[in-house]
Amino acid sequence: MRQLFGNLEKVLRGVDILRVMDRETLSSEEFSLEFEALLTSFRARGGRVEFADAFAR
User: Quick check: 49 and 18 in contact, CB under 8 A?
Assistant: First the structure.
């Protein structure tokens, strides 16, 4: 899982907006914690995170 998030971190360096399409995949606690850390880092660099369910309302 560390390699997955390391690769994702590299990809996100060139991205301004990240849209999370499905929160259901975050049901695993370990995955969710790693993902939240990734989002925190992404936001700290000035990235914006959008959750798709916010657009479905």
Answer: yes
